[in-house]
Amino acid sequence: MSKAELKRIEEEFDPEARFRPLPPVLSWLAGGLLFALACYHYYTSGFGIPRATNHMGVHLAFTLALIFLSFGAFSRPSPLPVPRLLGLPLTDWALGIAGAAAALYVPMVFNDLAFRVGNPLPIDVIMGTILIVVLLEATRRAMGWPLPVIAMLFMAYAYFGQSMPGILVHPGTDWRGIVNHLYLTSQGIYGTALMVISTYVFHFVLFGVLATRIGLGQLFIDLASALAGRFAGGPAKVSVLSSAMLGSISGSSIANTVTTGAMTIPAMIRIGYPRHFAAAVEAAASTGGQITPPVMGAVAFLMIEYLGVPLTTILTAALVPAFMHFFGVLLQVHLEARRRGLRGLTKAELPDAWRVFREGWMTTLPLVLLVIILLSGRTPYAAAFWGISACLLVLIVQNGWRHGPAQAIPKSARDIWDGFVIGARYSLAVTAAAALVGVIIGVVTLTGVGFKIAFMVTSVASGWAQSVHAALTFLPFELFSLPTLTLLFTLVMTAVVCILMGCGIPTTANYLIMVAVAAPILGMLGVEPLVAHFFVFYYGVLADVTPPVALAAYAAAGIANGNAFKAGNTAFRLSMGKVLVPFVFVFSPSLLLVVDGFTWTSFALATGGAMLGIWALSAAFADWLFGPLYALERAVLALAAMLLVAPDLYATAAGLVLIAPIVLRQVLAPKAHVIDTRH
């Protein structure tokens, strides 16, 4: 597909990429502001972050002004005549300027802020109201309605607390008190979420854009093709490996889907995969980018602030669960290829791995440098500074080789301008979302609603657990204890809420809300904070491939020209590893490597059982193990998978006993014929 077609698909399914066309003067103005924002962050990452409130104020002011330049109020131009200045509606100028002024107001009065908190002046309330209103509209433009609606409902809850039913009732707060808490304290808009976005995430978004621009993404795709393309169903395995590697630096499901899917999806279709399956493979693999170190989207950096642990702890904890996700997708594409008798790529269709690396090795230097600095214990933004600097150096050297010394500087300057502008533009929506999530978190801390919801959920889960436990008393042994069942039902409800919320809002915002609301629920049941945060994060990511709003799968279906709903359902099925593994590491935290009480025995049991369970469930879904399966065998494999993933020695043994006859029959049976896909 052409670049224009791919851009259209990305904009169709990713509201964060729907930038409106601007006339030349405004285009240069927006570009200049974006470049200035990127330069500011590049400089501060290397030479020191200013005072937190000042830093967040500058970042938010630039962001709000740029959102009203970059995003239109509606997807289609208004048929009514609208007063304009330089081609932009006057309302957009007013909102952008008002939002920037309100964002900078708090830093301007910072020295006096301690005397204003709890007793705001009328001007404070006015400026806070302006910022909240502008922030709601900015987020609506950049991301759609769901997150602003949730924020407004939370503010309504804070205001009408006395009218709430049952346990949700609280004294209520007037508008002055709400603005005071959300605008003037560190518990609201200028809270942890905005601080992390402006201090860490922006720099890694910029690094990812520049790393892709120097060719690192293409190197990953070529290496994956050279390494995995020759095996059965080769293009699908290339899709999984390349999406894992590219996702580790991009952290965006839809952008990853479009970038790698443009090459891998047509190749999968060409060798015989159905269109919806090819789209599902790319979508399932691309969503893994958000859980793959070292970048992991924005969530890794949010975790270090919320949990107070080093980034290396988060990255280490993410290793095994990320592997499990890609292991599950790879298994299913392999079994599907065997079932359909699909070939790999021929030698003529494959790049030479040594030649690919010899020509592109330089593009790996920024990533290697970034990882080394991260592991050394330096701050993430220092690692990003040196990673970005290395990207710029590689860019200049590449242009010198390609265009000669005379053209190296002008060409490099243009590439740097484009990279900085694109990187800053991709940060706009996530910044607006983080600031608005600060409103939601502020209401939670103001009203204490998080603990009330936690009490409600655990009460329901406890009631269900007691009913199930009583129903199982006929057994001569206790299959599940009451606390285990309570935790299990709580996890199921939490997972469902994470997926439902993720259908309307992006992963980062979903994670922030669920940390404020759901993490206390798991904490009440004794789940470690690190484990609870990973659980809600994984199920938030899963929303990108969960119908009815599986945006990554729908974008892939657009490239494949396949059925979008079937692609979403299949992508969810391919992501079974991501569905099962969070339950495993809740009941066996050793899977995350860095939790208290880690033992190699429990790690081996949890990891081995999870891999066997994913294998059994993949075979049940694919209707193929070493050959075709009977319907009863598929049901037994699915049941065995549930037992195998349970981090318990007896459950694992029971699962092995169930699958042993099936494996034996398949091994001893005559070689089965593959499905003839022509009929």
UniProtKB/TrEMBL annotation:
<feature type="transmembrane region" description="Helical">
    <location>
        <begin position="55"/>
        <end position="74"/>
    </location>
</feature>
<feature type="transmembrane region" description="Helical">
    <location>
        <begin position="422"/>
        <end position="447"/>
    </location>
</feature>
<keyword id="KW-0472">Membrane</keyword>
<dbReference type="Pfam" id="PF06808">
    <property type="entry name" value="DctM"/>
</dbReference>
<dbReference type="InterPro" id="IPR010656">
    <property type="entry name" value="DctM"/>
</dbReference>
<keyword id="KW-0812">Transmembrane</keyword>
<feature type="transmembrane region" description="Helical">
    <location>
        <begin position="534"/>
        <end position="559"/>
    </location>
</feature>
<protein>
    <submittedName>
        <fullName>TRAP transporter permease</fullName>
    </submittedName>
</protein>
<keyword id="KW-0813">Transport</keyword>
<keyword id="KW-1003">Cell membrane</keyword>
<feature type="transmembrane region" description="Helical">
    <location>
        <begin position="21"/>
        <end position="43"/>
    </location>
</feature>
<feature type="transmembrane region" description="Helical">
    <location>
        <begin position="314"/>
        <end position="335"/>
    </location>
</feature>
<feature type="transmembrane region" description="Helical">
    <location>
        <begin position="120"/>
        <end position="138"/>
    </location>
</feature>
<feature type="transmembrane region" description="Helical">
    <location>
        <begin position="145"/>
        <end position="168"/>
    </location>
</feature>
<feature type="transmembrane region" description="Helical">
    <location>
        <begin position="482"/>
        <end position="502"/>
    </location>
</feature>
<keyword id="KW-0997">Cell inner membrane</keyword>
<feature type="transmembrane region" description="Helical">
    <location>
        <begin position="356"/>
        <end position="375"/>
    </location>
</feature>
<feature type="transmembrane region" description="Helical">
    <location>
        <begin position="381"/>
        <end position="401"/>
    </location>
</feature>
<feature type="transmembrane region" description="Helical">
    <location>
        <begin position="188"/>
        <end position="211"/>
    </location>
</feature>
<feature type="domain" description="TRAP C4-dicarboxylate transport system permease DctM subunit">
    <location>
        <begin position="131"/>
        <end position="594"/>
    </location>
</feature>
<dbReference type="InterPro" id="IPR011853">
    <property type="entry name" value="TRAP_DctM-Dct_fused"/>
</dbReference>
<feature type="transmembrane region" description="Helical">
    <location>
        <begin position="579"/>
        <end position="600"/>
    </location>
</feature>
<keyword id="KW-1133">Transmembrane helix</keyword>
<comment type="function">
    <text>Part of the tripartite ATP-independent periplasmic (TRAP) transport system.</text>
</comment>
<feature type="transmembrane region" description="Helical">
    <location>
        <begin position="637"/>
        <end position="664"/>
    </location>
</feature>
<feature type="transmembrane region" description="Helical">
    <location>
        <begin position="612"/>
        <end position="631"/>
    </location>
</feature>
<feature type="transmembrane region" description="Helical">
    <location>
        <begin position="453"/>
        <end position="475"/>
    </location>
</feature>
<feature type="transmembrane region" description="Helical">
    <location>
        <begin position="508"/>
        <end position="527"/>
    </location>
</feature>
<feature type="transmembrane region" description="Helical">
    <location>
        <begin position="86"/>
        <end position="108"/>
    </location>
</feature>
